[in-house]
Amino acid sequence: MTRKTQTDKTRPTLCHAAARARDGTRDATRRPHNFSAGARSKTVGAAFEARALTFLQRQRLRFVARNVVCRGGEIDLVMREPDGALVFVEVRARTRSGYGGAAASVAWHKQQRIVRAAQYFLSAHDGAMPVCRFDVIAFERGRLLWLRDAFRADAC
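RESULT FIELD:
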């Protein structure tokens, strides 16, 4: 039994290959996607984290740590309020407001991952348990929105 195969010239492009033209270059007609995907996402994310850090320091919060990673999650910034409270900050950025925008992208599952990373961070530091808060800094089309006490650990 023989099977017919298509040649490369007649084969339809796959969805991930559709972004490339026949000569291998990027297709200029393709719309740019959100900040959260692609090879540039780490550098773009770091730039937004730096902007958020500068903003929070202007609000008199002190820098404690950045990019705290554990197996279950990650925290972008850890800051300390003047009264001693620890603030765990998630930084999100979106170019478009589709699907609710940057602030809405911190859904229940992401909150769980942040809480897990916060528990890891607190277990690694001895001493009295400080008051903690979870904030979100969202960049909606370039505008910074600071959501203080965006969610609580007991709600996750």
